[in-house]
Amino acid sequence: MKHSEPSRRQLRVGEQIRRAVAQVLQRGKVRDPLLESVILSISVVHMSADLKIATCFVAPLGDVNGDAVVMALNHYARYIRSQANHHLQQMKYMPEFRFQLDTSFDNFSKIDALLRSPKVARDLD
User: Model pTM?
Assistant: First the structure.
């Protein structure tokens, strides 16, 4: 299966949904003790080709169990979707929201640590 690049429309709609979800979470509309106690970064939203599924990649900031946060977000996904609908009234169809843990920051940290290791530094000199 070939993985194609997202279209401009997918990118534009994904960014609109990212902003809407961030506003819903920032305003404390979801009443869950775990979600109220954590600061979330929504890094990117990937849209399916038919724009019916929005996969939101989130990164909890601080020392928090990311899997528990993602489970809580997926539990409230329908509610978050209904609240985000107020910000996205121009959309003909509201996509289904899915949340996943964004591990790209961890990958960047690992690569940075490898590049700073004495063995790699020795080879670069």
Answer: 0.78
